[in-house]
Design goal:
Shape: globular
CATH topology: Jelly Rolls
Number of domains: 1
Strand order of the largest sheet: 1-8-3-6
Distance between the termini: 36 Å
Mean pLDDT: 82
Number of helices: 1
Low-confidence stretches: 1-21
Structural class: mainly beta
Order of helices and strands: HEEEEEEEEE
Length: 132
């Protein structure tokens, strides 16, 4: 039920965005995932800025996470997967509880910015550090 509500809300937001400017813009899906039934009903978008070379600590999230790189490049590695580089406009998905082992700006000169949409129950902390 919650998944249906979340999908309906997302489709309303996308539809509203497409209609908001007279249909002049192009709307392109960039990420999709089947959400678990316990995804929760609390959604929060976070803007994360990385200085050149900056890295975050390994961590996990209690619910699904959708990430879009806004500017620069971000290197990301989930669980035991090899690191991947994502450029502005590219996205990835993190399953609930998945270990986000590497998150870093690989550039020595340019900053990087991403936006992460986190779904949760609204009570559990959104980020839990883990040992490397």
């Amino acid at each position: 039920m919650r998944r249906s509500i979340a999908l309906f809300a997302l489709s309303v937001l996308v539809s509203a965005a497409a209609l908001g400017h007279g249909g002049e813009e192009t709307v392109t899906p960039i990420a999709a995932a089947q959400l678990p039934a316990q995804a929760g009903s609390h959604a929060q978008a976070l803007r994360v800025e990385f200085a050149p070379g900056q890295t975050s600590v390994p961590h996990r999230h209690p619910g699904p996470v959708f990430v879009v790189v806004v500017s620069g490049e971000v290197e990301s590695a989930l669980d035991d997967q090899p690191p991947q580089r994502f450029k502005a406009g590219e996205a990835w998905y993190e399953a609930p509880g998945q270990v986000h082992r590497v998150t870093r700006n690989p550039s020595a000169r340019e900053p990087a910015v991403l936006v992460a949409w986190l779904l949760s129950d609204g009570d559990t902390p959104l980020v839990t550090p883990v040992s490397p």
